[in-house]
Amino acid sequence: MAAKLAFEPGSSTAYHTGDWRSQRPFYHDKWPPCGQTCPASEDIQAWLALASDHQWEAAWHKLVARNPFPATMGRVCYHPCESACNRKHLDSAVNIHAMERHLGDMALAHGWAHQPLTPGRQTQRVAVVGAGPAGLSCAFQLARRGYPVTIFDAATEAGGTLRSGIPDYRLPKSVLAREIGAILALGITLKLNTRIGEAICAETLREEFDAVFLAIGAQRPRLYPGDSSQHSVMSGIDFLHRINQGERPALPKQVAVIGGGNTAIDVARCARRLGAEVTVVCAQNPHGTQLGQPGAEIPSSQQEIRQAEAEGIRIRYRTGVRRLVRSGQHLSGLEVARVDQVHDRHGNFDPKLFEGTEEFLPAGLAIFAIGQEVDWSGLESLTQAPGVVLGGDAAGEHRFAVTAVGSGYQGAMSIIAFLTGIPPLREHHEKAEITFKALNLDYYPKQARRGSETAQQRIDGFDELVTGLADNDAEEEADRCLSCGVCFKCDNCWHFCPDAAVIKKADGYEIDYDYCKGCGICAQECPCGHIDMERLTA
Amino acid sequence: MDKRDAFRHNVLTSGHRACSGCGEAMAARMVTDLIGPDAIYINATGCLQVFTTHNQQTAWQAPWIHSVFANAAAVAAGVEAAMRARGKEMPVVVQAGDGGTFDIGLQCLSGMIERGHDVLFVCYDNEAYMNTGVQRSSSTPHGVRTTTSPPGRLSQGKHHLKKDVISIIAAHHLPYAATATIAYFPDLKAKVEKALGIKGPRFLHVLSPCPLGWAHDSALSVTVSRLAVETGLFPLLELEHGDLTGVMRLAEQKPVQEYLRLQGRFKHLFNTKQGMEEVRHLQALADAHIRHYGLLEADTEWDTRRAMHSARHGRGGYAQVTVSAPREVKNGG
Ligand SMILES: Cc1ncc(C[n+]2csc(CCOP(=O)(O)OP(=O)(O)O)c2C)c(N)n1
Ligand code: SF4
Ligand code: SF4
Ligand code: SF4
Ligand code: SF4
Fold first, then answer.
1. Which of A49, A407, A530, B65 is deepest in the core (most CB within 10 A)?
2. Residue A108: in which H helix or E strand, if any?
3. By CA distance, what is A533's nearest residue in B?
4. Closest approach of A45 to chain B, Cα-based (Å)
């Protein structure tokens, strides 16, 4: 006969040791530095986690929620996320841009389609002016939320600067075209060869649509002020534009490119591919400090600079142009001089040249890549009108293509706020930051970064240089993410809690505050800093 | 019965009265959930017995007997013989503190091993008699402050060295003896599972930091136990039939001071010249372990770094994933 037990199994649970606690642990998602630094605010940690679980399509959906151009940006973005990645304190940053490209390429290969966020359709119509990264990103966000969107662009094809300004060896046109195709497949109307202010007047546009997103880019090149002759002088964006339309102009033996930005480097590398000896004249120093940031003096990407130099391009740092040296119309070269300071006291670009340091630099063509301006002609009335939102380079944010993507998202949110009268929700940006100091790095294995950074340098054509990740490398690379501040279900807290106060569930963990004594072990031993301790006051 | 957790049985569940951050509670929770509820547990007197059974309540969810301080191994031998006589097979597991193992329990343990009983003896070593208020035991390392080895003008804490109990046990040529600690769950799991797969007497020595007696921050129990291994003071070993068959290689040897400085029980050593001599002595003991067991060069799969590495979705859990119904326990015969 079964006897009644004197002690019922587990009867101690009637006693709540949680009363002893003087501090309380709690699970708390953080916002890792990668996503915080990404100009498009991608939730990088989240999509890497899905990729690491081999949920590739879900990872792509998570990524494109903020950036519908992964195959494109994975190729052209200068990935500030990686400079911020906490993993660099363990071995080397996660190869985020290669993962992004991998997901983008997978989507193109498998024909994955974007999903609308709502089944319903809105009635208010939105016009987007400019089919560049900002305009397309804005249209994408609006279309996913059910808004009918029409994009207008003056060019013959969509893509804006991504199409006209980025050479094929960095971004094959077909990749861009297919990603744009996937965005338009959400039901967006695209009207090409339609310049607002000419084909359609600005006022008509404003009347016909409930809101307008103006993302016309900065298309008008800044010209060299010291020389009025157009002979043997060109702007960087015009040069790139011609190359990107398939032209392969014959160049003089020596070409000088003036500028320190990415356009200058792109121009130099294209000119090099056309057989010229190329010298870049650049006021900045690659290691120079600006506003306390080492390496920030020069706006172009360090990686692009290294690749350009490896291709045999000479870069003259801290050098400025004094005048163009001509014999008659003919350009024989530039007179250059040493630059003293690059920026004035307010951080504005204003190089000062040292007298007496002049040199002659022979060149048959001078290409100036010294910036672009917004051409507002015909659109003046729109810039101040209600329901018109500016975005991309036209909003003065110009820096990276991916900045324009982020600006497109913000623009869409502002437009929806305008149309609905409901202010946009602020999201995870309010979450706490997490630095490597909050991580328990010993819990992570060292693992070499995957992917070839320095592809073999070839200057004999415009074929794409950098190859993508192999499937198995992508799997391994996704695993390298430390999941900063976000639980990755390692079980540590569950194993280590002396009081069985951490309960494991199918979808995560829960602290049972009836029993947690507040020892702090779970927080101490969490690899990724997901657990915080909070002092309790009596 | 408590069935809050779908992924382990919680053989030792919540509501127990161990101090906050108790390493012994953590160790026992891990070990018993690796063994599961279908076993008979015999517990010597000590913290683990006292804090799990209180006021007519128990934190155990498996058959559990409290022996007296000295005779847990003898009780287990009897349980195992009775099970054999009745033709039943079930793991028989002893749990005891270092007092109940190194000191007063040693002769019963030695007899149990010598007679070849099919029992797993687990010693949770917190290096003193904690339950009665931190008296020194033969497991207490030298130089430690306890209530019966107070440092002062004539003494730097305990005079005598920590007893090398694993060598004493191994000298019985038993099938399996191992040392482990809470910091390396996968290593502990591998050792418990290995022990469960072997017949005959088996011994598991689990270092279990005690925030009260060691006077460290309760959040640091795991950290401290990890440092005990990384410094070489507590080598992780496996011995089969008396021979050393495995060690945990140290990825890097940490200086003993890193371990000592986290604990109030060593604090006095850093105040005097004689104390610092004891620190050097502890370092020399760690160095001697490292040489003796080849902890830096052993050719093993594990090392202290790899054993620590975590993984997405964990690295495996406990014995029982499904929670079984309360077991009927029959009285007498
Ligand atoms: C024969 C006998 N002597 C003394 C005691 C008092 N006593 C109970 S537990 C204990 C110390 C237990 O120390 P240890 O075995 O190291 O376990 P811990 O409490 O440290 O886990 C003592 C001395 C006793 N119960 N029986
Ligand atoms: S390790 Fe992962 S989560 Fe952390 S910063 Fe790098 S990419 Fe982001
Ligand atoms: S380890 Fe357990 S008892 Fe300690 S603070 Fe965390 S949940 Fe609470
Ligand atoms: S310890 Fe592991 S399982 Fe627990 S919260 Fe941190 S990452 Fe998640
Ligand atoms: S005295 Fe030490 S071993 Fe005993 S319950 Fe407290 S912490 Fe645990």
1. A407
2. helix A96-110
3. B219
4. 13
**Does B251 contact A at CB distance below 8 Å?**
no
Q: How close, in Å, is residue B124 to chain A by CA atoms?
A: 14
- Asked if A95 and A60 touch (Cβ cutoff 8 Å), the reply is no
Kindly give the distance from the C-alpha atom of residue B21 to the centroid of ligand 5, in angstroms, as a whole number.
8
Is residue A277 classed as helix, strand or coil in its secondary structure?
strand
| Candidate CATH numbers 2.170.30.10, 3.50.50.60, 3.40.1710.10, 3.40.50.970; the one for domain A229-370 | 3.50.50.60
Per CATH, which fold does A12-29+487-535 belong to?
A: Alpha-Beta Plaits (3.30.70)
Pairing, β A293-294 against β A289-290: antiparallel
Report the CATH fold assignment for A126-219+373-420: FAD/NAD(P)-binding domain (3.50.50)
Residue B85 backbone class (left: φ over 0; alpha: ψ -120 to 50; beta: rest): alpha
What is the biggest distance separating any 2 CA atoms in chain B, rounded to whole angstroms?
A: 63
| Residues carrying CATH 1.10.1060.10, chain A | 33-114+445-479
pLDDT tens by residue, A357-373: 999 999 999 999 998 88
Contact A9 B330 (CB under 8 A): no
Mapping DSSP to helix (H, G, I), strand (E, B) and coil, where does residue B92 land? Answer: strand
DSSP-derived secondary structure for A317-329: TTEEEEEEEEETT
The predicted structure's pLDDT at residue A41: 94
Q: Is the CB of A311 under 6 A from ligand 3?
A: no
pLDDT at site A457: 66
Q: Which domains does chain B have, with CATH numbers?
A: 3-330 (3.40.50.970)
- Closest among A489, A492, A523 to A506, alpha carbons compared: A489
Give the pLDDT band of residue B333 (cuts 50, 70, 90). Answer: very low
Q: Is A349 in the B-facing interface, judged by CB distances under 8 Å?
A: no
Inter-chain CB proximity B29 and A500 less than 8 Å: yes
- Tell me the shortest Cα–Cα distance from B83 to chain A, in angstroms: 18
Whether residue A100 is predicted with pLDDT greater than 60 in this model: the reply is yes
Q: What percentage of chain B exceeds 70 in pLDDT?
A: 96
Average pLDDT over residues A229-245: 92
Spacing, Cα A533 to ligand 3 middle (Å): 10
Tell which one of A522, A532, A536 to mutate to probe ligand 3, the residue whose CB is within 8 A of the most ligand atoms: A522
pLDDT exceeds 80 at position A289? no
Ranges for all domains in chain A classified under CATH 3.50.50.60 = 126-219+373-420, 229-370
